[in-house]
């Protein structure tokens, strides 16, 4: 669909609402993902057409400083409020996040908790060996993984601040960063600010940017790292699917003590929770988890975790939701 204009991290697509109206008229259920500027219009269209609408709430919106960003933030929040009023049901990933969100508590009677589906392609030991040879020929240990885009809310600088202490305890340690880093929309200034801090570690092979990886390569990534960290700084992260992907591959996680983000570690007892924005505490929690690493011991847990987030199981939860509201297919 044609993008006419980009505003901060959003886009303006003039044909979107017309096309959405056509699709809503042909549908029995509309699934709207928040936060997004168009949400209020879409939920209103669904209500007008008497089509059952489900909002999937991914996270609270917290735009960076700046006049344009703050105006955009208020506009999207306003449209989210309209969507909450017009929709039939709102799906959140965890009760923890639902209670602490700036949006969800206003609509708690409509909120249902359904886990996200998570699955990754299977890869062979031989494929993982090749990946390790390409990225870790020096056989560095431990390898701390981080999987996200390089953005101000993800807390890469907190990991950078923790790295000297981790290297003091484990001189052969290394960070593998999987995800876009130098061309992230709206985050160029953040990358430029971190670049001088990153360069010494990159030069010594202690920090490696792997770039954006397709799903098969991500499976190899998780099998190559020893643990994952998610040092997020605010509620723009609400769960962290990468945590589940890492745990599915037997890798523990050190995550921030944020609503929703802390749930996978607590639920599956694989890793540790670190104080938000505290490099010293993150370092100690990483060192603690590294000290507890025992390859292969999480086999039983990984099977349980895969079953917990199995797409068929999540689909069944949505089907039960539709039955609860007597949603019947008419098309």
Descriptive terms for the model:
331 residues; alpha/beta; six-stranded parallel β-sheet; four-stranded parallel β-sheet; 13 helices; 12 strands; globular
How would you characterize this protein structure?
This protein is of the alpha/beta class. It contains 13 helices and twelve strands. The chain has helices at residues 16-25, 39-48, 67-86, 95-100, 125-135, 156-169, 188-203, 215-224, 241-248, 263-268, 279-291, 299-308, 311-324; strands spanning 5-7, 10-12, 29-34, 52-57, 89-92, 111-113, 143-147, 174-178, 207-211, 227-230, 253-256, 271-274. The strands form three sheets. It has a six-stranded parallel β-sheet with strand order 9-8-7-10-11-12, with helices on both faces. Strand 8 (174-178), helix 7 (188-203) and strand 9 form a beta-alpha-beta unit. Helix 1 (16-25) packs parallel to helix 2 (39-48), helix 2 (39-48) runs parallel beside helix 3 and helix 6 packs across helix 11.
């Amino acid at each position: 669909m044609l993008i006419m204009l980009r505003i901060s991290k959003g886009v303006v697509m003039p044909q979107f609402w017309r096309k959405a109206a056509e699709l809503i008229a042909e549908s029995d259920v509309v699934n709207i993902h928040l936060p997004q500027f168009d949400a209020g219009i879409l939920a209103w269209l669904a209500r007008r057409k008497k089509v059952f609408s489900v909002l999937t709430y991914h996270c609270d919106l917290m735009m960076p400083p700046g006049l344009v960003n703050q105006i955009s933030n208020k506009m999207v929040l306003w449209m989210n409020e309209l969507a909450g009023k017009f929709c039939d049901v709102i799906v959140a990933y965890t009760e923890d996040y639902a209670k602490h969100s700036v949006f969800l508590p206003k609509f708690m009677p409509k909120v249902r908790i359904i886990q996200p589906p998570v699955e990754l392609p299977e890869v062979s030991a031989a494929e993982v060996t090749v990946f390790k040879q390409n990225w870790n020929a020096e056989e560095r240990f431990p390898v701390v993984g981080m999987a996200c885009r390089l953005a101000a809310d993800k807390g890469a600088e907190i990991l950078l601040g923790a790295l000297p202490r981790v290297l003091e305890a484990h001189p052969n340690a290394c960070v593998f960063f999987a995800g876009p880093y130098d061309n992230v929309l709206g985050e160029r200034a953040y990358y430029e600010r971190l670049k001088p801090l990153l360069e010494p570690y990159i030069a010594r092979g202690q920090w490696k940017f792997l770039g954006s990886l397709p799903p098969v390569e991500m499976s190899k990534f998780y099998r190559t790292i020893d643990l994952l960290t998610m040092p997020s700084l605010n509620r723009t992260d609400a769960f962290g699917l990468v945590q589940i992907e890492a745990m599915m591959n037997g890798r523990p996680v050190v995550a921030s003590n944020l609503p929703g983000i802390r749930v996978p570690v607590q639920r599956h007892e694989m890793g540790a929770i670190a104080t938000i924005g505290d490099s010293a505490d993150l370092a100690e929690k990483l060192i603690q988890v590294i000290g507890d690493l025992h390859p292969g011991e999480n086999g039983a847990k990984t099977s349980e975790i895969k079953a917990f987030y199995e797409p068929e199981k999540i689909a069944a939860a949505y089907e039960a939701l539709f039955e609860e509201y007597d949603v019947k297919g008419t098309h």
